[in-house]
Amino acid sequence: MSERAGILRRLGEQAEWDVLVIGGGATGLGAAVEAASRGYRTVLVERADFAKGTSSRSTKLVHGGVRYLEQMNITLVLDALKERGHMLENAPHIVHNLSFVVPIFDYFGLPYYGFGLKVYEWLSGKLSFGESRMLSPEKTREMLPGVAASGLRGGVLYHDGQFDDARYGVSLLRTFEELGGVAINYVEATGLIERSGKLVGVQVRDLEGDARFELLAKVTINAAGAFSEQILVMDGDRETLLSVSQGSHFVLPRDFLPGANAMMIPKTSDGRVLFAIPWHGATVVGTTDEAVERASAEPRAMEVERRFLMQHIAKYLGRRPEIGEVLSVWSGLRPLVRKGGGATSKLSRDHTILVRPSGLVTITGGKWTTYRRMGEDVINRAAEIGGLKQEPSRTRALRLHGWTREVAAVESERVYGSDLPLIERLSQQDASLNELLHPRLPYRMREVVWAARQEMARTVEDVLARRLRALFLDARAAIEAAPKVADVLARELGRSEEWKARDLENFYSVARGYVYEGE
Protein backbone atom coordinates (compact mmCIF):
# COMPACT_ATOMS: atom_id res chain seq x y z
CA MET A 1 0.00 0.00 0.00
CA SER A 2 1.42 3.42 -0.96
CA GLU A 3 1.90 6.17 1.62
CA ARG A 4 -0.96 8.15 0.07
CA ALA A 5 -3.28 5.14 0.14
CA GLY A 6 -2.46 4.69 3.81
CA ILE A 7 -3.30 8.33 4.56
CA LEU A 8 -6.60 8.07 2.69
CA ARG A 9 -7.46 4.93 4.63
CA ARG A 10 -6.69 6.65 7.92
CA LEU A 11 -8.92 9.57 6.92
CA GLY A 12 -11.76 7.13 6.34
CA GLU A 13 -11.22 5.28 9.61
CA GLN A 14 -11.03 8.27 11.97
CA ALA A 15 -14.52 8.78 13.43
CA GLU A 16 -13.94 12.41 14.43
CA TRP A 17 -11.04 14.84 14.49
CA ASP A 18 -10.53 17.60 17.02
CA VAL A 19 -9.34 20.12 14.42
CA LEU A 20 -9.76 20.11 10.65
CA VAL A 21 -7.75 22.66 8.65
CA ILE A 22 -8.64 23.60 5.07
CA GLY A 23 -5.60 25.00 3.26
CA GLY A 24 -1.95 23.92 3.14
CA GLY A 25 -0.15 27.24 2.85
CA ALA A 26 1.79 29.04 5.57
CA THR A 27 -1.36 29.90 7.55
CA GLY A 28 -2.91 26.43 7.39
CA LEU A 29 0.35 24.59 8.09
CA GLY A 30 1.12 26.94 10.97
CA ALA A 31 -2.32 26.37 12.48
CA ALA A 32 -2.01 22.60 12.02
CA VAL A 33 1.40 22.47 13.74
CA GLU A 34 0.04 24.60 16.56
CA ALA A 35 -2.96 22.29 17.05
CA ALA A 36 -0.99 19.04 16.86
CA SER A 37 1.67 20.34 19.24
CA ARG A 38 -1.09 20.84 21.84
CA GLY A 39 -2.15 17.22 21.47
CA TYR A 40 -5.29 17.83 19.39
CA ARG A 41 -6.12 15.20 16.75
CA THR A 42 -5.60 17.31 13.65
CA VAL A 43 -6.09 16.79 9.92
CA LEU A 44 -5.21 19.16 7.06
CA VAL A 45 -6.50 19.00 3.48
CA GLU A 46 -5.10 20.97 0.55
CA ARG A 47 -6.77 20.94 -2.85
CA ALA A 48 -3.53 21.56 -4.76
CA ASP A 49 -0.01 21.16 -3.39
CA PHE A 50 1.34 22.45 -0.10
CA ALA A 51 2.46 26.11 -0.49
CA LYS A 52 1.24 26.06 -4.10
CA GLY A 53 -0.16 29.59 -3.87
CA THR A 54 1.06 32.72 -2.14
CA SER A 55 3.26 30.79 0.28
CA SER A 56 5.80 29.81 -2.40
CA ARG A 57 5.73 33.19 -4.17
CA SER A 58 6.86 35.63 -1.49
CA THR A 59 9.88 37.95 -1.69
CA LYS A 60 11.75 35.36 0.46
CA LEU A 61 12.06 37.68 3.45
CA VAL A 62 11.56 37.05 7.15
CA HIS A 63 11.09 40.60 8.30
CA GLY A 64 9.30 43.06 10.53
CA GLY A 65 8.23 45.19 7.59
CA VAL A 66 10.03 48.51 7.20
CA ARG A 67 7.09 50.12 5.42
CA TYR A 68 4.71 49.17 8.25
CA LEU A 69 6.99 51.14 10.57
CA GLU A 70 6.61 54.16 8.28
CA GLN A 71 2.83 53.63 8.41
CA MET A 72 3.16 53.70 12.24
CA ASN A 73 1.80 50.15 12.61
CA ILE A 74 4.15 49.56 15.53
CA THR A 75 2.23 46.56 16.88
CA LEU A 76 2.55 44.64 13.61
CA VAL A 77 6.26 45.47 13.34
CA LEU A 78 6.93 44.43 16.95
CA ASP A 79 5.08 41.14 16.53
CA ALA A 80 6.82 40.41 13.23
CA LEU A 81 10.28 41.20 14.61
CA LYS A 82 9.69 38.81 17.52
CA GLU A 83 8.46 36.11 15.16
CA ARG A 84 11.45 36.71 12.87
CA GLY A 85 13.69 35.84 15.81
CA HIS A 86 11.69 32.70 16.61
CA MET A 87 11.86 31.55 12.98
CA LEU A 88 15.65 31.84 13.00
CA GLU A 89 15.88 29.88 16.25
CA ASN A 90 13.39 27.20 15.18
CA ALA A 91 14.68 26.65 11.63
CA PRO A 92 18.29 27.87 11.29
CA HIS A 93 18.78 25.55 8.31
CA ILE A 94 16.19 27.56 6.31
CA VAL A 95 16.27 31.07 7.82
CA HIS A 96 19.40 33.19 7.93
CA ASN A 97 20.55 36.73 8.59
CA LEU A 98 21.01 38.98 5.56
CA SER A 99 22.59 42.44 5.30
CA PHE A 100 20.57 45.06 3.43
CA VAL A 101 21.80 48.37 2.06
CA VAL A 102 19.47 51.29 1.30
CA PRO A 103 21.13 53.54 -1.32
CA ILE A 104 20.23 57.19 -0.69
CA PHE A 105 20.01 59.75 -3.48
CA ASP A 106 18.85 62.86 -1.61
CA TYR A 107 20.20 64.86 1.34
CA PHE A 108 17.22 64.27 3.62
CA GLY A 109 17.18 60.51 3.03
CA LEU A 110 20.28 59.72 5.10
CA PRO A 111 19.05 61.09 8.45
CA TYR A 112 15.45 60.00 7.77
CA TYR A 113 16.16 56.37 6.92
CA GLY A 114 19.19 56.21 9.19
CA PHE A 115 17.01 57.05 12.19
CA GLY A 116 14.07 54.92 11.01
CA LEU A 117 16.18 51.80 10.57
CA LYS A 118 17.86 52.39 13.93
CA VAL A 119 14.38 52.37 15.48
CA TYR A 120 13.68 49.15 13.54
CA GLU A 121 16.79 47.64 15.14
CA TRP A 122 15.84 48.86 18.63
CA LEU A 123 12.34 47.42 18.36
CA SER A 124 13.77 43.93 17.84
CA GLY A 125 15.45 44.09 21.26
CA LYS A 126 17.25 40.89 22.27
CA LEU A 127 16.16 39.28 18.97
CA SER A 128 18.08 41.86 16.91
CA PHE A 129 19.77 40.53 13.76
CA GLY A 130 22.49 43.17 13.85
CA GLU A 131 23.35 46.84 14.16
CA SER A 132 22.30 49.40 11.54
CA ARG A 133 24.59 52.23 10.49
CA MET A 134 24.97 54.94 7.88
CA LEU A 135 27.42 54.49 5.01
CA SER A 136 29.47 56.80 2.86
CA PRO A 137 28.90 56.82 -0.93
CA GLU A 138 32.15 54.85 -1.34
CA LYS A 139 31.15 52.22 1.20
CA THR A 140 27.68 51.97 -0.33
CA ARG A 141 29.17 51.23 -3.77
CA GLU A 142 31.54 48.71 -2.19
CA MET A 143 28.67 46.86 -0.50
CA LEU A 144 26.38 47.14 -3.55
CA PRO A 145 28.59 46.58 -6.60
CA GLY A 146 26.78 47.83 -9.70
CA VAL A 147 24.42 50.20 -7.88
CA ALA A 148 23.64 53.37 -9.84
CA ALA A 149 26.30 55.88 -8.81
CA SER A 150 24.81 59.08 -10.23
CA GLY A 151 23.58 61.30 -7.39
CA LEU A 152 24.40 58.69 -4.71
CA ARG A 153 24.67 60.45 -1.32
CA GLY A 154 25.41 57.38 0.78
CA GLY A 155 23.48 54.51 2.23
CA VAL A 156 22.11 52.83 5.32
CA LEU A 157 23.02 49.27 6.36
CA TYR A 158 20.53 47.17 8.33
CA HIS A 159 19.81 43.49 8.94
CA ASP A 160 16.79 41.31 8.30
CA GLY A 161 16.02 37.66 7.65
CA GLN A 162 15.85 35.60 4.48
CA PHE A 163 14.43 32.14 3.83
CA ASP A 164 13.17 29.71 1.23
CA ASP A 165 9.41 29.97 1.65
CA ALA A 166 8.29 26.69 0.03
CA ARG A 167 11.02 24.72 1.81
CA TYR A 168 9.91 26.22 5.12
CA GLY A 169 6.41 25.00 4.25
CA VAL A 170 7.76 21.48 3.66
CA SER A 171 9.53 21.63 7.03
CA LEU A 172 6.23 22.60 8.70
CA LEU A 173 4.52 19.69 6.92
CA ARG A 174 7.10 17.18 8.15
CA THR A 175 6.94 18.66 11.67
CA PHE A 176 3.14 18.33 11.67
CA GLU A 177 3.40 14.67 10.68
CA GLU A 178 5.97 14.02 13.41
CA LEU A 179 3.55 15.54 15.94
CA GLY A 180 0.94 12.96 14.91
CA GLY A 181 -1.03 15.12 12.48
CA VAL A 182 -2.36 13.88 9.14
CA ALA A 183 -1.99 16.04 6.02
CA ILE A 184 -2.82 15.30 2.41
CA ASN A 185 -2.54 17.29 -0.80
CA TYR A 186 -4.83 17.07 -3.84
CA VAL A 187 -7.89 16.59 -1.64
CA GLU A 188 -10.52 19.29 -2.09
CA ALA A 189 -13.18 20.50 0.33
CA THR A 190 -16.42 20.37 -1.70
CA GLY A 191 -19.01 21.19 0.95
CA LEU A 192 -19.67 21.71 4.64
CA ILE A 193 -21.62 19.33 6.87
CA GLU A 194 -24.03 21.00 9.28
CA ARG A 195 -26.33 19.50 11.87
CA SER A 196 -28.88 21.67 13.68
CA GLY A 197 -27.15 24.75 12.25
CA LYS A 198 -23.73 23.80 13.57
CA LEU A 199 -20.73 22.81 11.47
CA VAL A 200 -19.62 19.25 12.20
CA GLY A 201 -17.34 18.47 9.27
CA VAL A 202 -16.43 18.79 5.63
CA GLN A 203 -17.18 16.83 2.46
CA VAL A 204 -13.98 16.21 0.50
CA ARG A 205 -12.92 14.68 -2.79
CA ASP A 206 -9.64 12.99 -3.65
CA LEU A 207 -8.61 14.72 -6.88
CA GLU A 208 -6.31 11.85 -7.86
CA GLY A 209 -8.77 8.99 -7.50
CA ASP A 210 -12.10 10.89 -7.38
CA ALA A 211 -13.14 9.16 -4.14
CA ARG A 212 -15.54 11.23 -2.02
CA PHE A 213 -15.86 11.01 1.74
CA GLU A 214 -16.69 12.97 4.87
CA LEU A 215 -14.36 14.27 7.57
CA LEU A 216 -16.02 15.05 10.88
CA ALA A 217 -14.40 17.45 13.33
CA LYS A 218 -15.17 19.37 16.50
CA VAL A 219 -13.95 22.55 14.82
CA THR A 220 -13.07 23.46 11.22
CA ILE A 221 -10.58 26.19 10.29
CA ASN A 222 -10.74 27.93 6.93
CA ALA A 223 -7.14 28.85 6.10
CA ALA A 224 -7.50 29.02 2.32
CA GLY A 225 -5.69 32.35 1.95
CA ALA A 226 -6.73 34.27 -1.16
CA PHE A 227 -9.45 31.65 -1.70
CA SER A 228 -10.99 31.93 1.78
CA GLU A 229 -14.18 33.47 0.40
CA GLN A 230 -14.89 30.27 -1.57
CA ILE A 231 -15.15 28.35 1.72
CA LEU A 232 -17.24 31.11 3.30
CA VAL A 233 -19.69 30.90 0.40
CA MET A 234 -20.23 27.22 1.29
CA ASP A 235 -21.38 28.48 4.68
CA GLY A 236 -23.77 31.00 3.16
CA ASP A 237 -21.57 34.08 3.57
CA ARG A 238 -21.41 36.03 0.31
CA GLU A 239 -19.97 39.27 1.64
CA THR A 240 -16.69 40.46 0.17
CA LEU A 241 -13.98 39.99 2.79
CA LEU A 242 -10.75 40.45 0.86
CA SER A 243 -9.00 42.87 -1.43
CA VAL A 244 -6.60 40.76 -3.47
CA SER A 245 -3.31 42.34 -4.45
CA GLN A 246 -0.68 40.87 -6.78
CA GLY A 247 3.08 41.13 -6.44
CA SER A 248 5.45 40.06 -9.22
CA HIS A 249 9.17 39.32 -9.27
CA PHE A 250 11.96 38.98 -11.81
CA VAL A 251 14.87 36.59 -11.28
CA LEU A 252 18.14 37.77 -12.83
CA PRO A 253 21.68 36.37 -13.02
CA ARG A 254 23.86 36.94 -9.98
CA ASP A 255 26.00 39.53 -11.77
CA PHE A 256 23.19 42.10 -11.44
CA LEU A 257 23.88 42.07 -7.68
CA PRO A 258 27.26 40.33 -7.37
CA GLY A 259 27.91 40.94 -3.67
CA ALA A 260 26.52 39.16 -0.63
CA ASN A 261 24.24 42.05 0.37
CA ALA A 262 20.65 42.82 -0.59
CA MET A 263 19.38 46.22 -1.75
CA MET A 264 16.22 47.90 -0.47
CA ILE A 265 14.56 50.87 -2.18
CA PRO A 266 12.23 52.31 0.47
CA LYS A 267 9.75 54.07 -1.77
CA THR A 268 9.08 53.47 -5.46
CA SER A 269 6.62 55.18 -7.78
CA ASP A 270 3.76 52.95 -6.60
CA GLY A 271 4.54 53.52 -2.91
CA ARG A 272 6.00 50.07 -2.28
CA VAL A 273 9.33 48.96 -0.97
CA LEU A 274 11.42 47.29 -3.69
CA PHE A 275 14.08 44.67 -2.99
CA ALA A 276 16.94 43.14 -4.94
CA ILE A 277 18.07 40.05 -3.08
CA PRO A 278 20.68 37.31 -3.59
CA TRP A 279 18.85 33.96 -3.46
CA HIS A 280 20.07 30.48 -4.46
CA GLY A 281 22.83 31.97 -6.61
CA ALA A 282 20.51 34.35 -8.48
CA THR A 283 19.08 37.84 -7.89
CA VAL A 284 15.39 38.26 -7.06
CA VAL A 285 13.89 41.70 -7.74
CA GLY A 286 10.42 42.62 -6.49
CA THR A 287 7.77 43.24 -5.62
CA THR A 288 5.00 45.14 -7.34
CA ASP A 289 1.58 45.95 -5.96
CA GLU A 290 -1.42 45.75 -8.28
CA ALA A 291 -5.03 45.13 -7.30
CA VAL A 292 -6.68 42.20 -9.10
CA GLU A 293 -10.39 41.43 -9.40
CA ARG A 294 -10.20 37.79 -8.38
CA ALA A 295 -7.79 35.20 -7.08
CA SER A 296 -6.13 32.88 -9.59
CA ALA A 297 -4.29 29.62 -8.98
CA GLU A 298 -1.60 30.72 -11.45
CA PRO A 299 -1.37 34.53 -11.43
CA ARG A 300 0.63 36.05 -14.25
CA ALA A 301 2.69 39.24 -14.22
CA MET A 302 0.82 42.04 -15.97
CA GLU A 303 2.44 44.27 -18.56
CA VAL A 304 2.37 47.22 -16.14
CA GLU A 305 4.29 45.12 -13.59
CA ARG A 306 6.88 43.91 -16.08
CA ARG A 307 7.44 47.48 -17.25
CA PHE A 308 7.73 48.71 -13.64
CA LEU A 309 10.35 46.08 -12.78
CA MET A 310 12.37 46.76 -15.92
CA GLN A 311 12.39 50.50 -15.25
CA HIS A 312 13.50 50.09 -11.63
CA ILE A 313 16.16 47.50 -12.43
CA ALA A 314 17.64 49.88 -15.02
CA LYS A 315 17.39 52.80 -12.59
CA TYR A 316 19.00 51.17 -9.55
CA LEU A 317 21.10 48.28 -10.88
CA GLY A 318 22.66 50.20 -13.70
CA ARG A 319 21.37 48.42 -16.80
CA ARG A 320 18.23 47.05 -18.37
CA PRO A 321 18.21 43.23 -18.63
CA GLU A 322 18.02 41.53 -21.99
CA ILE A 323 15.03 39.22 -22.47
CA GLY A 324 17.18 36.13 -21.98
CA GLU A 325 18.62 37.50 -18.73
CA VAL A 326 15.23 37.38 -17.02
CA LEU A 327 15.54 33.79 -15.84
CA SER A 328 12.07 33.56 -14.35
CA VAL A 329 9.09 35.81 -13.69
CA TRP A 330 6.49 34.87 -11.09
CA SER A 331 3.60 36.42 -9.22
CA GLY A 332 1.92 35.89 -5.87
CA LEU A 333 -1.35 37.09 -4.36
CA ARG A 334 -1.82 38.89 -1.05
CA PRO A 335 -5.14 38.34 0.74
CA LEU A 336 -5.63 41.77 2.32
CA VAL A 337 -8.57 42.17 4.68
CA ARG A 338 -10.86 45.03 3.69
CA LYS A 339 -10.91 47.80 6.31
CA GLY A 340 -11.99 50.68 4.14
CA GLY A 341 -10.82 51.76 0.71
CA GLY A 342 -7.48 52.98 -0.53
CA ALA A 343 -4.55 51.50 -2.38
CA THR A 344 -3.70 47.89 -1.59
CA SER A 345 -0.18 48.96 -0.59
CA LYS A 346 -1.79 50.89 2.28
CA LEU A 347 -4.01 48.04 3.52
CA SER A 348 -2.99 46.33 6.74
CA ARG A 349 -1.15 43.01 6.83
CA ASP A 350 -2.65 42.27 10.25
CA HIS A 351 -4.45 38.94 10.38
CA THR A 352 -8.16 38.63 11.06
CA ILE A 353 -10.11 35.78 12.67
CA LEU A 354 -13.82 35.47 11.88
CA VAL A 355 -16.27 33.02 13.45
CA ARG A 356 -19.49 32.25 11.60
CA PRO A 357 -22.73 31.36 13.45
CA SER A 358 -22.16 27.76 12.31
CA GLY A 359 -18.82 27.69 14.14
CA LEU A 360 -16.65 27.88 11.01
CA VAL A 361 -13.42 29.66 11.99
CA THR A 362 -11.72 31.68 9.24
CA ILE A 363 -8.24 33.17 9.50
CA THR A 364 -6.94 35.40 6.75
CA GLY A 365 -4.61 38.33 6.12
CA GLY A 366 -1.24 38.35 7.84
CA LYS A 367 2.18 37.64 6.37
CA TRP A 368 4.67 34.75 6.25
CA THR A 369 6.76 36.08 9.12
CA THR A 370 3.79 36.06 11.53
CA TYR A 371 2.51 32.60 10.52
CA ARG A 372 3.27 31.08 13.96
CA ARG A 373 1.51 33.86 15.86
CA MET A 374 -1.46 33.49 13.50
CA GLY A 375 -1.54 29.76 14.23
CA GLU A 376 -1.42 30.37 17.97
CA ASP A 377 -4.24 32.93 17.84
CA VAL A 378 -6.55 30.85 15.63
CA ILE A 379 -6.08 27.65 17.64
CA ASN A 380 -6.82 29.54 20.86
CA ARG A 381 -10.12 30.62 19.29
CA ALA A 382 -10.82 27.27 17.65
CA ALA A 383 -10.33 25.43 20.95
CA GLU A 384 -13.05 27.60 22.49
CA ILE A 385 -15.44 27.02 19.58
CA GLY A 386 -14.81 23.26 19.49
CA GLY A 387 -14.96 22.77 23.25
CA LEU A 388 -11.43 21.36 23.29
CA LYS A 389 -9.34 21.05 26.42
CA GLN A 390 -7.45 24.30 26.88
CA GLU A 391 -3.74 23.77 26.29
CA PRO A 392 -0.96 26.38 26.19
CA SER A 393 0.94 27.11 22.99
CA ARG A 394 4.19 25.17 22.63
CA THR A 395 5.45 26.44 19.27
CA ARG A 396 7.52 29.48 20.25
CA ALA A 397 10.58 27.29 20.81
CA LEU A 398 9.51 24.27 18.74
CA ARG A 399 12.38 23.12 16.53
CA LEU A 400 11.13 22.34 13.05
CA HIS A 401 11.95 19.23 11.05
CA GLY A 402 15.55 19.27 9.82
CA TRP A 403 16.76 21.57 12.59
CA THR A 404 20.53 21.81 12.77
CA ARG A 405 23.15 24.50 13.17
CA GLU A 406 25.61 22.44 11.10
CA VAL A 407 24.26 23.85 7.85
CA ALA A 408 25.66 23.07 4.40
CA ALA A 409 27.58 25.78 2.56
CA VAL A 410 25.43 25.50 -0.58
CA GLU A 411 22.02 27.13 -0.13
CA SER A 412 20.16 24.50 -2.18
CA GLU A 413 21.46 21.82 0.20
CA ARG A 414 21.30 23.68 3.52
CA VAL A 415 17.48 23.82 3.37
CA TYR A 416 17.40 20.05 4.08
CA GLY A 417 19.18 20.51 7.38
CA SER A 418 19.70 17.23 9.21
CA ASP A 419 18.09 15.28 6.33
CA LEU A 420 21.03 16.03 4.01
CA PRO A 421 23.15 12.96 4.96
CA LEU A 422 20.14 10.73 4.24
CA ILE A 423 19.72 12.32 0.82
CA GLU A 424 23.43 11.95 0.05
CA ARG A 425 23.15 8.28 0.98
CA LEU A 426 20.69 7.79 -1.90
CA SER A 427 23.39 8.57 -4.45
CA GLN A 428 25.85 6.34 -2.62
CA GLN A 429 23.39 3.49 -3.17
CA ASP A 430 22.76 4.51 -6.81
CA ALA A 431 25.48 6.59 -8.46
CA SER A 432 23.13 7.75 -11.22
CA LEU A 433 21.20 9.78 -8.64
CA ASN A 434 24.24 12.03 -8.20
CA GLU A 435 23.67 13.42 -11.71
CA LEU A 436 22.65 17.08 -11.99
CA LEU A 437 19.12 17.73 -13.25
CA HIS A 438 20.45 20.44 -15.54
CA PRO A 439 23.81 22.22 -16.00
CA ARG A 440 22.27 25.57 -14.95
CA LEU A 441 20.56 24.17 -11.85
CA PRO A 442 22.18 23.10 -8.53
CA TYR A 443 19.86 20.11 -7.98
CA ARG A 444 20.58 16.39 -8.32
CA MET A 445 18.40 13.42 -9.20
CA ARG A 446 18.53 12.17 -5.61
CA GLU A 447 16.49 15.16 -4.48
CA VAL A 448 13.68 14.16 -6.85
CA VAL A 449 13.61 10.68 -5.30
CA TRP A 450 13.60 12.21 -1.81
CA ALA A 451 10.73 14.54 -2.74
CA ALA A 452 8.63 11.60 -3.92
CA ARG A 453 9.44 9.29 -1.01
CA GLN A 454 9.55 11.71 1.92
CA GLU A 455 7.87 15.02 0.98
CA MET A 456 4.58 14.03 -0.68
CA ALA A 457 5.50 15.37 -4.13
CA ARG A 458 2.92 14.07 -6.61
CA THR A 459 3.68 15.92 -9.85
CA VAL A 460 6.56 17.32 -11.87
CA GLU A 461 5.41 20.79 -10.84
CA ASP A 462 5.48 19.85 -7.15
CA VAL A 463 9.13 18.86 -7.55
CA LEU A 464 10.43 21.61 -9.83
CA ALA A 465 8.47 24.50 -8.32
CA ARG A 466 8.36 23.78 -4.59
CA ARG A 467 10.47 20.81 -3.37
CA LEU A 468 13.25 22.19 -5.58
CA ARG A 469 13.04 25.83 -6.65
CA ALA A 470 14.06 25.28 -10.26
CA LEU A 471 11.01 26.89 -11.88
CA PHE A 472 11.49 30.03 -9.78
CA LEU A 473 15.22 30.22 -10.48
CA ASP A 474 15.44 29.41 -14.20
CA ALA A 475 12.20 28.59 -15.98
CA ARG A 476 13.82 27.50 -19.25
CA ALA A 477 16.19 25.13 -17.45
CA ALA A 478 13.28 23.71 -15.44
CA ILE A 479 11.35 23.01 -18.66
CA GLU A 480 14.39 21.23 -20.11
CA ALA A 481 14.84 19.16 -16.94
CA ALA A 482 11.17 18.16 -16.69
CA PRO A 483 11.34 14.87 -18.69
CA LYS A 484 14.04 13.50 -16.33
CA VAL A 485 11.90 14.40 -13.32
CA ALA A 486 8.82 12.79 -14.92
CA ASP A 487 10.76 9.54 -15.46
CA VAL A 488 11.83 9.39 -11.80
CA LEU A 489 8.37 10.26 -10.48
CA ALA A 490 6.67 7.71 -12.70
CA ARG A 491 9.01 5.03 -11.37
CA GLU A 492 8.70 6.10 -7.72
CA LEU A 493 4.92 6.51 -7.76
CA GLY A 494 4.10 3.60 -10.07
CA ARG A 495 2.64 5.84 -12.77
CA SER A 496 1.85 4.89 -16.36
CA GLU A 497 3.35 6.35 -19.54
CA GLU A 498 -0.01 8.02 -20.17
CA TRP A 499 0.12 9.71 -16.76
CA LYS A 500 3.70 10.81 -17.38
CA ALA A 501 2.81 12.46 -20.69
CA ARG A 502 -0.22 14.20 -19.19
CA ASP A 503 1.73 15.44 -16.16
CA LEU A 504 4.51 16.79 -18.35
CA GLU A 505 2.02 18.71 -20.48
CA ASN A 506 0.42 20.13 -17.33
CA PHE A 507 3.84 21.27 -16.14
CA TYR A 508 4.74 22.86 -19.47
CA SER A 509 1.44 24.75 -19.44
CA VAL A 510 2.29 26.24 -16.03
CA ALA A 511 6.01 26.73 -16.67
CA ARG A 512 5.55 28.71 -19.89
CA GLY A 513 4.03 31.45 -17.74
CA TYR A 514 7.35 31.82 -15.90
CA VAL A 515 9.32 32.42 -19.10
CA TYR A 516 9.85 36.12 -19.79
CA GLU A 517 9.09 37.07 -23.37
CA GLY A 518 9.21 40.85 -23.13
CA GLU A 519 6.81 43.58 -22.06
Q: How many domains make up the 3D coordinates?
A: 3
Tell me the CATH topology of the largest domain.
D-Amino Acid Oxidase, Chain A, domain 2
Cα radius of gyration in angstroms: 22 Å
Q: Overall mean pLDDT score?
A: 93
CATH architectural name of the largest domain: 2-Layer Sandwich
Q: Provide the β-strand percentage band.
A: 15-25%
Helical content, roughly?
A: 25-40%
Report the total helices.
Answer: 17
* Low confidence ranges: 340-348
Give the CA-CA distance, first to last residue: 49 Å
Question: Biggest sheet, open or closed, and with what strands and sense?
Answer: 10 strands, mixed
Report on the structure:
It is a single chain. This protein is α+β, with helices and mostly antiparallel strands. The chain folds into three domains: about 5-55 and about 165-240 and about 350-385, FAD/NAD(P)-binding domain; about 95-160 and about 245-345, 2-Layer Sandwich (D-Amino Acid Oxidase, Chain A, domain 2), CATH 3.30.9; about 410-515, Helicase, Ruva Protein, domain 3 (Orthogonal Bundle). About 35% of the residues lie in helices and about 20% in strands. The protein is built from 17 helices and 18 strands. Strands 3, 4, 5, 6, 11, 12, 13, 14, 15 and 16 form a ten-stranded mixed beta sheet that branches. Strands 1, 2, 7, 8, 9, 10, 17 and 18 form an eight-stranded mixed beta sheet that branches. Helix 2 (about 25-35) packs parallel to helix 7 (about 165-180), helix 13 packs across helix 16 (about 475-495) and helix 16 runs antiparallel to helix 17. The longest helix has 19 residues, at about 475-495.
